[in-house]
Specification:
Chain lengths: 290, 274, 410
């Protein structure tokens, strides 16, 4: 492994671009979070120190939103990861008939999020939706998909999974495709079972890719907005009111200080979550990969 | 592992519910685009029906849809190329070179992707306003490349570190420069990773709503904003929305079909080593 | 030479960053518009205006849910809009960025405007906007079902509850009335409508005042009504209320006039032609809620005269008539003008035109306060908690008032 030197020239363009474009707004945003700034009162901008943060800390609505967001993120990412991994393993098998189906599995990614969510609302519609029509026909009842607090949380998780299982699938699948086939052949010669070669070859070699997929999905799910906003708008009551819904409200009403404080708290929560997860998964293996 | 007919059948059976779950909403959107709103809600649900094209005609004539389609395409392709070039370079840099604090810098790259976009949009807006880049392709392009880049970098690191060093060293002894090695040896081996990075960079730009809404207006407006406009103050126009969504889906499908042939084990290590 | 080139480049850069030169000549104005069918109507009529006046109108259309945000951000940062299509609750908060129009209004034929609609553009005695498209809550009912049962459309809230009960038959998927009980804004507005009717006020003397006898009575009637709705109104929004009527599931609905046109369209509604329209019910008073789309001119516009000319045209009789006739199944732009609403052609196209006009004449406006958007948002969230069973009625009313007072700094 080479040190320093030439690496600089590979890293410089991308990092310079990224940090200029993203860190400046981020620092600005952190700075604004210490102000009381309401867009409709441009002449009344006051420095308030940590006020915006303190207010979030004691706001029961915000604390509830943190819980709801965490539940949603954990549920959605777990479901998506398991489904995505399963599909990727299935498609990594040398079956000819699977090739053409691959692109079909990716289709949900291509639907504009707001349309996908709107159509799911049509499908979920408890009174006139197609889903409950067939469930009733087969005697399976008609669940109140969006109008019961628990079901509503389940529904938004399902729709999020519909949309992003293809992401998990594609990332893990591409990772599987570059694993050296020789390793598996050697293991098969040694009489390893499918589970054993999964456990001892695939998992270690794919840890990094799988972790990355989970991290990326985790941070996106934590900040998910469109699907939840279209499907439930945070309701019924406050059952699906996530941090982003609150952020949208503050932003929409022009409370810049508050909105930015919510944003910075979100960023810190996500960063800590990712950091802990990375430590937990990479360290015990002696930082095997990268 | 030879595939047996039994395993093939089992795989097929296991896939059916997944496919149904994945494809039904898409089928429903596609058919909704050819139905009246009343037919969309018909009971029993209509699987076969006489299609109408009114929804498409309305979308294409009422608003300058083609102009917005062009905007979306240009910006999405630009985002893809920009983030692939920068991401490949940086990904290779991280994969092959260690320096003091490189772990921290790498994590910082990921941190830029963690900030809620709702928070970044106002500073972005003010920045672009200062630079006179509101409602331009450049303004959105810059934003989207910065969205797509962290994932591209991190993903490509994962693919580049798996490329065996001895292959690279051999090429360098043969007189290849570092950049030459990257282009001729590393990229072909890591092709599936680049394909995935490309697809997601394209999608980041193609589906993004908030920044497109705030940063664009007339000249650079992209399709997600137009489609969100079909969710009106008198409720969603299901037919028109679906028609627009179907048209928006097609370029993605074409792109994926083109790219997916690189998503196979054709260029594996064995081939290079041999 | 170098310096010269530098300044040349600088000048080029600056001129390309500022709005284009030709936009400054009063010939081109930028309009912030609502996307959807209203945009379609506008785009269809615009060429005529451009030909007549030589003014080019650049349309920046934004989705309904995001228009306020975009206007707020743009106006407060010295953005580029000359003229803005605005919902009336936005006028108070954005008033300081808008051009006072009192003098210019004198040139309009004010006698032709329904007076309440003109009030929608005013704030603290200054006129900031001209009405374009008035909206108001109506009571929609199934004429055929009411005839079968020999019932008259309800005129009071008690009669409304009784009628809803009479038509409610869940086993046949027939429901008394369609309203919402979700965390959607409509839920809050339904509750507020009922409370208003019993004499309650959201804000009185600068304080939240829902927690009163009238507030409780109105709240109770609203909750009572929820017993005769489709079972899942806890997830309903504006479009679902429409759907319940259009698919023939609900015998009645309280809905904004903007929802009425799709109910009368055969490709969207199975009950087109079977609907009657009347005023929302009364208790101690009758208070259909008003929501008027208006057109305003930005204070910092460099083309105020051209912008005003456009505003005049958009609120004018000609555009009103063209808009009513525009073949949109989605909805309509309803003119604020007597001459359009009373026109025989209008009545033929919009079966609810008479009720619309009658409602507009007695309509009640929401509190006109700078902080209103915040107050309404607090109302929305708390009404959602009430209908979801997270709060009792009394606790909810107290919480709404507390929120209102906090927002008003009391």
């Amino acid at each position: 492994m080479a040190a320093g030197g030439a690496g600089r020239w590979f890293l410089l363009p991308g990092l310079a671009f990224l940090f200029t474009i993203d860190l400046i707004p981020l620092v600005y945003s952190a700075w604004v979070s210490f102000y009381n700034w309401w867009l409709i009162r441009p002449r009344d901008v006051r420095f308030v120190g940590l006020d915006n943060y303190v207010r979030l800390g004691v706001d029961p609505e915000f604390n509830r939103a943190v819980v709801v967001t965490t539940l949603f993120t954990a549920g959605a990412v777990a479901l998506e990861f398991l489904a995505g991994l399963g599909l990727a393993l299935l498609f990594a098998q040398p079956f000819r008939f699977l090739r053409p189906i691959r692109v079909l599995l990716l289709l949900p990614l291509f639907v504009v999020p707001v349309v996908g969510a709107t159509m799911w609302r049509v499908i979920f519609h408890p009174e006139v939706g197609v889903l409950n029509h067939y469930l009733t026909t087969f005697g399976l009842g008609h669940p109140p998909w969006l109008s019961d607090p628990t079901w509503a949380l389940v529904s938004i998780t399902l729709v999020d999974a519909w949309r992003t299982i293809p992401f998990m699938f594609l990332v893990i699948y591409a990772g599987l495709e570059v694993l050296p086939a020789e390793l598996f052949e050697a293991a098969a010669v040694d009489g390893a079972s499918a589970w054993q070669s999964f456990r001892h070859i695939t998992v270690p070699l794919l840890t990094y890719i799988m972790l990355l997929a989970v991290l990326i999905r985790g941070m996106d799910a934590f900040r998910e907005f469109d699907i939840i906003f279209v499907l439930t708008g945070g309701g019924p009551g406050t059952a699906t009111q996530t941090i982003q819904i609150l952020n949208y409200r503050a932003f929409g009403l022009g409370h810049m200080g508050q909105a930015n404080a919510i944003g910075i708290v979100t960023l810190v929560l996500v960063a800590v979550m990712c950091f802990v997860l990375m430590r937990a998964i990479l360290r015990p293996r002696g930082a095997a990969q990268a | 592992m030879k595939p047996t007919p039994l395993r093939a059948t089992l795989t097929g059976v296991a896939l059916l519910p997944v496919l149904a779950w994945t494809l039904f909403p898409i089928y429903w959107i596609t058919t909704a685009s050819f139905k009246t709103e009343l037919a969309l809600y018909a009971k029993p649900p209509q699987w076969l029906f006489t299609p109408i094209v009114d929804n498409y005609t309305r979308v294409l004539t009422n608003i300058p849809f083609v102009q917005y389609l062009k905007n979306s395409l240009v910006i999405a392709l630009g985002t893809t190329i920009g983030s692939l070039v920068l991401g490949t370079l940086a990904g290779y840099g991280f994969a092959r070179f260690r320096f003091r604090g490189s772990e921290a810098v790498r994590f910082l790259v990921l941190v830029t992707r963690m900030a809620p976009r709702m928070v970044l949009v106002v500073p972005y807006y003010l920045m672009m306003q200062r630079l006179g880049l509101l409602d331009t392709y450049t303004g959105l392009l810059v934003a989207y490349v910065s969205f797509a880049l962290p994932f591209s970098i991190w993903l490509l690191i994962g693919f580049f570190v798996d490329v065996p060093l001895d292959v690279e060293e051999a090429a360098m002894i043969d007189g290849c420069s570092r950049l030459g090695v990257l282009v001729r040896i590393v990229i072909p081996i890591a092709a599936p990773g680049l394909v995935v990075a490309a697809i997601f960079a394209f999608l980041v730009s193609w589906n993004e709503f908030l920044f497109a809404l705030i940063l664009s207006g007339v000249e650079a407006k992209t399709l997600p904003v137009v489609i969100a406009g079909l969710n009106t103050d008198a409720g969603p126009l299901y037919g028109e929305m679906s028609a627009a969504a179907v048209m928006v889906m097609l370029p993605n499908i074409v792109m994926t079909l083109v790219l997916q042939r690189y998503l196979v084990k054709g260029l594996t290590l064995g081939a290079v080593k041999g | 030479m170098r310096t010269k080139t530098f300044f040349l480049v600088l000048a080029l850069v600056l001129s390309s960053t500022a709005s284009p030169v030709w936009a400054q000549q009063g010939k081109s104005i930028t309009l912030s518009m609502l996307a959807g069918y209203k945009e379609d109507v506008l785009r269809a009529s615009l060429p005529e205006f451009e030909k007549k006046t030589g003014i080019k109108v650049v349309v920046d259309a934004s989705p309904f849910g995001d228009l306020y945000k975009k206007q707020l951000l743009s106006l407060s940062t010295g953005g580029r809009y000359d003229v803005l299509f605005m919902d009336e609750p936005w006028i108070a908060p954005l008033s300081e960025f808008l051009l006072p129009l009192n003098e210019r209004m004198k040139s309009l034929d004010l006698a032709d405007f329904v007076p309440t609609t003109v009030a929608s553009g005013a704030f603290q005695g200054t006129q900031y906007a001209v009405p374009v498209d008035p909206n108001v809550q109506l009571l929609v009912y199934r004429k055929d079902l009411f005839e079968q049962k020999g019932l008259k459309p309800p005129a009071t809230w008690d009669e409304l509850v009784a009628a809803a009960k009479a038509f409610h038959d869940p086993s046949k998927q027939q429901y008394g009335i369609a309203i919402t009980a979700s965390s959607d804004i409509q839920t809050a507005l339904y509750m507020l409508l009922a409370i208003w009717s019993y004499g309650g006020e959201l804000v009185d003397n600068g304080r939240g005042s829902l927690n009163s006898a009238a507030g409780k009575k109105g709240g109770e009637v609203f909750l009572e009504l929820l017993k005769f709705t489709p079972p899942n109104v806890k997830s309903y929004n504006f479009a679902d209320v429409n759907k319940a009527i259009q698919l023939g599931q609900a015998a009645m609905a309280i809905q904004w006039a903007s929802g009425a046109r799709p109910m009368e369209d055969k490709t969207r509604s199975s009950v087109a032609g079977k609907l009657g329209y009347t005023l929302v019910p009364k208790a101690v008073r009758q208070t259909p809620m008003r929501g008027v789309w208006t057109i305003a001119v930005a204070k910092n516009s460099a083309n105020q005269d051209a912008a005003w000319q456009f505003a005049t045209w958009l609120s004018g009789k000609e555009f009103g008539q063209a808009a009513v006739k525009f073949p949109s199944a989605t909805s309509a732009i309803h003119s604020p003008r007597f001459s359009v609403l009373k026109d025989a052609g209008t009545k033929a196209t919009l079966p609810y035109a008479d009720t619309l006009l009658a409602s507009l004449q007695i309509t009640k406006e929401r509190p006109r306060l700078r902080e209103y958007a915040d107050i309404q948002e607090n109302l929305r969230v708390t009404a959602g908690k009430l209908t979801a069973g997270e709060l009792t009625l009394e606790a909810a009313l107290k919480e709404i008032d507390a929120g209102t007072n906090r927002i008003l700094g009391k």
